[in-house]
Amino acid sequence: MCPTLVGSDGYPFQGKFIFSLNLEKMLLSDEKQCAEHIMLVDLGRNDVGKVTKPG
């Protein structure tokens, strides 16, 4: 399965996939960026937990 990037208009991005893969590698290799991402995911999870019911 090949991942496809689709814009908000429903059409695939032209020529952006290679850029996206390079950006992904760069961000994953940066310790600070990974720590910030984990922090943002935790904040989002906490926010969702405030407005949902368990179970």
Automatic annotation (TrEMBL):
InterPro entries per UniProt: ADC_synthase, Anth_synth_I-like
Name under which the protein is recorded: Anthranilate synthase
MF GO annotations: anthranilate synthase activity
Keywords linked to the UniProt accession: Lyase
Keyword Lyase listed: yes
UniProt xrefs under Gene3D superfamilies: Anthranilate synthase
Lineage per the UniProt record: Eukaryota, Viridiplantae, Streptophyta, Embryophyta, Tracheophyta
Xref: PANTHER family: AMINOBENZOATE/ANTHRANILATE SYNTHASE, ANTHRANILATE SYNTHASE
Protein's organism: Helianthus annuus
EC number, UniProt record: 4.1.3.27
Superkingdom as given in the UniProt entry: Eukaryota
Class in the EC hierarchy, top level: lyase
